[in-house]
Specification:
Blueprint (H helix, E strand, L loop, with lengths): L8 E5 L6 E6 L14 E5 L13 E2 L4 E2 L8 E3 L5 E4 L8 E7 L2 E8 L22
Bound molecules: FE2/S2 (inorganic) cluster.
Length: about 130
């Protein structure tokens, strides 16, 4: 938690290696946000239209991921990844987070990662971290 500042965008894989996500601190409360201000959120990086990455298009101070570089879909990352505009017809999958002893943990994916009919199929899971 102490290493995340407003406006930061941090990429990580979850739940499988190679499933790219981003975490960001928006500076204002967000749906399912964690932290004192409930403003830290994470999402899968693959656009739900055709799988292009929106990780390089995250604008935390505008609560936005996008426009997607492929066909311009934009997602509201303060409201669960809702489609603001564009070709995609489903929300950007939110990575649900939990905080314990100052550490941020990914706990599950809200929705399907683009290209998967099962988020955990055909891949190597990220190793679970066990807290004491
Ligand atoms: S892949 Fe993102 S809008 Fe088409």
């Amino acid at each position: 938690m102490s290493e995340v500042s407003t406006g930061d965008v941090i990429e990580f894989d979850y739940p499988l290696q190679g499933q790219s996500n981003f975490l960001t601190k928006l500076g204002e409360s967000a749906w399912d946000g964690v932290g004192a201000d409930e403003d830290i959120v994470a999402f899968n990086s693959q656009c739900t239209h055709a799988g292009c990455s929106v990780a390089g298009q995250v604008v935390p101070n505008e609560n936005r991921a996008g426009p997607c570089p492929c066909h311009y879909t934009s997602f509201d990352i303060s409201k669960g990844g809702l489609v603001n505009m564009g070709q995609a017809t489903s929300d950007l999958p939110q990575i649900e987070l939990d905080v314990e002893d100052g550490e941020i943990y990914a706990t599950y994916v809200e929705g399907l990662v683009w290209g998967y009919h099962n988020n955990l199929r055909n891949g190597t899971p990220i190793e679970a971290v066990q807290s004491n």
